Amino acid sequence: MAKVLVGKRSDIQEGEFTNVIVGGRQILIANIRGRYFATGNICTHEGAELHEGELHDKELTCPLHGAKWDLSTGQLNSFHEFLESIGSYRILIEDDTLFVEI
């Protein structure tokens, strides 16, 4: 696994999320109550970019068809059909700097 610089912790305020390109992959990084999560940013239903969706606690809703994803695992919480996981990545914090392992 490679450790890749994402940015500063202060770049993502509490309750916010962003999309970063890491190793050619779109990864969504979220700050939930001071805890950071990293998942794939592309919905496995029809390819929507999840950073355009809504965030409620640790649940991310796809902007196109409403699939709901768990940010802590990358697993589907709810949708009318089975969808593959969007995946999750480990976040490392060193001082005020965020890294993601890919």
How would you describe this protein?
- The chain has 102 residues and is mainly β.
- It has a single domain (3-101), classed as Rieske [2Fe-2S] iron-sulphur domain (Rieske Iron-sulfur Protein).
- It has no helices and ten strands.
- The chain has strands at 3-8, 17-22, 25-32, 35-40, 54-56, 59-61, 68-70, 76-78, 88-94, 97-101.
- The strands form two sheets. A six-stranded antiparallel beta sheet has the order 1-10-9-4-3-2, with no helix packed on it.
- Strand 2 (17-22) and strand 3 (25-32) form a beta hairpin.
- The radius of gyration is 13 Å and the shape is globular.
- The mean pLDDT is 94.
Could you give the count of β-strands?
10
If you average the pLDDT, what whole number results?
94
Q: What's the level 1 CATH class? A: Mainly Beta
Overall spatial form: globular
Oligomeric category: single chain
Radius of gyration computed on alpha carbons: 13 Å
Contiguous low-pLDDT stretches (5 residues minimum) are none
What structural class do helix, strand and pairing data support?
mainly beta
Describe the main β-sheet briefly.
6 strands, antiparallel
Distance between the termini: 5 Å
The ordered H/E elements are EEEEEEEEEE
- What would you say the CATH architecture is? 3-layer Sandwich
Approximately how much beta-strand content do the residues carry? over 45%
Alpha plus pi helix count: 0
CATH superfamily: Rieske [2Fe-2S] iron-sulphur domain
Which properties best describe this structure?
102 residues, six-stranded antiparallel beta sheet, 49% strand, four-stranded antiparallel beta sheet, globular, mainly beta, Rieske Iron-sulfur Protein
